[in-house]
Design goal:
By secondary structure, this protein is α/β, with parallel strands linked by helices. It has 31 helices and 15 strands. Strands 7-8-9-10-11 form a five-stranded mixed sheet, sandwiched between helices. The protein has a four-stranded mixed sheet with strand order 3-6-5-4. Helix 31 links the parallel strand 13 and strand 14.
């Protein structure tokens, strides 16, 4: 995936950046693979290298297969450094999926061939270079396997397969760590009793032990960094060795004996290197726990902890004979991230448990015939969580949940409705899970997932939206339906639709154009934005005022209809925070991939999860316009949501700053010259059909009646051109310039149509 790193769950600290890998995982843009000769030729060259790369890495592991190698690669490859100001750095170029692949390849080595020797920097450095190269070669094979076809529909299907395979291989984590653990604990609660009865541990135990091992690994790593830094800060070789021995009094020999074997020249550097290498050889201890240790961390009985850990673990040699391709698109480590050594458990990446927790829970539930219970718990949790997020995001709105309604004798159901002023938000929740076959790109399964998670909820929400439109036009059948729901259709000016899931399908759901080319979306259907409930929570958290929240949801739908997108929801949200979702001014490409835009959001949650307070990212609105939005929300005059959205849609962030400067210039001009009368107006024409004029009226009028009359007159003059569907007027008093506005007014030109 693009280098946005999707909220890694490994926010540990590390001592230094050695060793670092020389290459990086790159996703080949699949937008032109069906006809891009250069892309396919590059893919062909990489794919030819795959057998050799795989064999070379396996030979290396055969000589050095051990938990120590995994521990060192995970330690130096995956840790994110979080500074006191909340800033993060990821010096390595490895990603979690690389280390998952290494863990699986290690388990393909027979247990009797595992080495007891500690690893060394040279071995790890070689692995750092080979892992990304191997992943790149496999990606190339997926592109080659897509094939070239003259059929546009089949080419689109092939692109969707490539998208999902790349997502499956390279994307980890469906939410930030704190939200993942709290949400999954809540989801698991109804399953705890049945799991405890049939497995010997509760479903939420999986989440708890993962969370506590992540925290404990962070603690161990931070302590290691502290004492190793203290040791290496010594200014003489003997003091370096003495400090190290004080940390580990169980070592044999003495510091003086170790000093005697060091070379005469450069002893201080040699002593520090000796200490670092010795400490690296002990890295396996950082990610190794006994059942008793985890029991102390979690507060659970030891037998229960061991049962849970063994249920999601593999023993050395467990994957002997497994086909190489399976390690990329159906890696057994995803369902069993723990290595069972009998009396101890090695967990190189405890965050991988939460990354793959949906698949882990489904696998465990299926083994004891609890899959139906899990499906029911997922559906109930998703609707309840989405509803609570929506209620918090839109205070003062009228809410309806699980709304049953009839239209023309047919019965329908809508999951969530929220009506705030003139904006109706329709949310459909689909808790279907992604199957392993679908994640590997099997066309029938992919199409089924798109139908279940993207198309069907969009059909349901569009059906209700059209019923509201019909009711506003006076259709008697639709009016009856609205009365049953409890909605006054005449109050609804705008409709926003969202589809909510638990499993992440953004990589496909945002590719609306490709889905249409594949023939998987009905021609008359406008897709709603599809996002996970965790991403929905992030959107509501970042956009914690109703108007930006509604503006994002509305713009997000338009973005996927007009752009060929490649990215995840938080990249789209990061784009909104920085630029807005009007991307017409940004460089044009065949595929729009806002890679890295989620970085400020990732930084905020990374810092929060390690207890550091940093400023929350917010939209780059001009300060004056931000104050207008806040004032609209506080004062809530008639049509305030429609006025606020009209203002946001009329001006991007750069235009907002220009208008603010223009208003200041007009104010100064009016102050200097009384001959222009008591008021002056700045009129902004709508840049797109269906949008209103925006007028700023600067005045010296003293009474509310005079202000309203002047606003109405300005609107009438502006609308005389007949170009717009209406007009929004914002009045500002010359002597109270610090106020966002005196009053606001929306005037409609004609009967409204959604």
């Amino acid at each position: 995936m693009p280098k946005s790193r999707r909220r890694k769950l490994n926010n540990h600290r590390r001592v230094d950046t050695e060793p670092s890998g020389p290459s990086d995982f790159q996703v080949v843009d699949p937008s032109g693979f069906a006809s891009g000769v250069q892309i396919r030729e590059a893919a062909r060259r990489r794919w030819r290298a795959f057998p050799g790369e795989f064999a070379a890495l396996r030979r290396l592991l055969t000589d050095r297969a051990s938990p120590g190698v995994l521990a060192m690669v995970a330690h130096y490859g995956l840790q994110v450094l979080v500074d006191h100001d909340g800033s993060t750095r990821h010096p390595s170029k490895l990603e979690q999926h690389h280390v998952e692949l290494l863990q699986a390849m290690t388990l393909t080595v027979p247990a009797e061939d595992w080495s007891s020797q500690p690893s060394n920097p040279a071995v790890v450095q070689s692995i750092f270079g080979r892992l990304p190269a191997l992943a790149d070669a496999f990606v190339a094979g997926r592109i080659m396997g897509a094939g070239v076809t003259g059929d546009p529909a089949q080419s689109a299907v092939s692109e969707l397969q490539v998208r999902l395979r790349l997502h499956t291989q390279g994307v980890r984590n469906w939410g930030n760590f704190g939200d993942v653990t709290s949400m999954m604990s809540e989801l698991c609660a109804p399953l705890n009793g049945p799991f405890l009865e049939r497995h010997g541990f509760a479903a939420s135990d999986i989440v708890l032990l993962a969370s506590m091992m992540v925290r404990d690994l962070e603690r161990r790593t931070s302590e290691r960094m502290a004492w190793l830094g203290e040791v290496r800060s010594a200014n003489t070789p003997i003091e370096v060795l003495r400090r190290y021995y004080r940390m580990f009094p169980q070592f044999s020999g003495t510091p003086e004996q170790e000093l005697a074997v060091l070379p005469g020249k450069g002893r201080l550097s040699a002593a520090r290197k000796m200490v670092r290498n010795h400490a690296d050889a002990r890295l396996r201890e950082l990610c190794t726990w006994t059942g008793l240790e985890v029991a102390h961390l979690t507060g659970l009985p030891r037998d229960r902890v061991q049962a849970a850990m063994r249920a999601i673990s593999l023993k050395p040699g467990a994957l002997v004979g497994v086909e190489p391709e399976r390690l990329f698109l159906a890696n057994p480590v995803w369902l069993a991230p723990i290595i069972d050594l009998g009396d101890k458990f090695v967990v190189p990446m405890p965050q991988a448990i939460t990354s793959h927790v949906h698949g882990i829970l489904r696998n465990l539930a299926a083994k004891v015939e609890l899959a139906h219970n899990l499906d029911r718990a997922r559906a109930r949790f998703l609707e309840a969580k989405a509803g609570s997020i929506l209620m918090a995001a839109l205070p003062g709105a009228t809410f309806r949940a699980n709304v049953a309604w009839r239209l023309g004798g047919e019965r329908f159901e809508t999951d969530l409705l929220a009506l705030l002023d003139g904006v109706l938000v329709i949310v459909e929740c689909k808790a279907h899970h992604l199957t392993p076959e679908g994640l590997r790109g099997a066309p029938d399964r992919v199409r089924r997932h798109v139908r279940n998670l993207v198309v069907e909820p969009a059909i349901q929400s569009q059906r209700l939206a059209r019923a509201v439109e019909d009711a506003r036009r006076g259709d008697p059948v639709a009016l009856v339906a609205m009365r049953d729901i409890g909605i006054e259709a005449g109050c609804v000016e705008r409709i926003t639709r969202v589809s909510m899931t638990l499993d992440d399908l953004t990589i496909l759901a945002s590719a609306e154009g490709v889905l249409r080319d594949a023939g998987w979306v009905p021609a008359e259907l406008e897709l709603a934005p599809t996002m996970t409930v965790a991403d929905f929570a992030c959107v509501a958290d970042m956009l914690d005022e109703p108007l930006p929240f509604l503006h994002y949801l509305s713009g997000r739908a338009a973005l996927q209809r007009t752009e060929s997108l490649l990215g995840n929801e938080l990249d789209f949200l990061g784009l909104y925070l920085r630029h807005g979702l009007d991307v017409t001014s940004l460089p044009r490409h065949d595929m729009f991939a806002p890679s890295g835009m989620s970085e400020p959001i990732d930084k905020y949650y990374d810092a929060r999860d390690v207890g550091i307070t940093v400023a929350k990212p917010c939209p780059a609105f001009d300060p004056y316009f931000a104050s207008v939005l806040v004032a609209l929300n506080l004062r809530r005059p008639p049509d305030w949501t429609l006025i606020g959205l009209s203002v946001l849609e009329a001006l991007d962030y750069r235009q907002q700053r220009k208008v603010t400067r223009d208003l200041d210039r007009l104010r100064r001009k009016l102050v200097r010259s009384l001959q222009h009368g008591d008021q002056v107006a700045l009129t902004l024409d709508p840049d797109l059909p269906g949008r209103p004029f925006l007028v700023f009226l600067i005045n010296r009028l003293s009474t509310t009646t005079e202000v309203i009359k002047a606003m109405q007159s300005a609107a009438a003059v502006t609308m005389a051109s007949g170009a717009g569907v209406g007009c929004v007027v914002v009045a500002r008093h010359l002597d109270r310039w610090d106020e966002p506005f005196q009053d606001v007014l929306q005037v409609r030109a004609a009967p409204k149509h959604l």
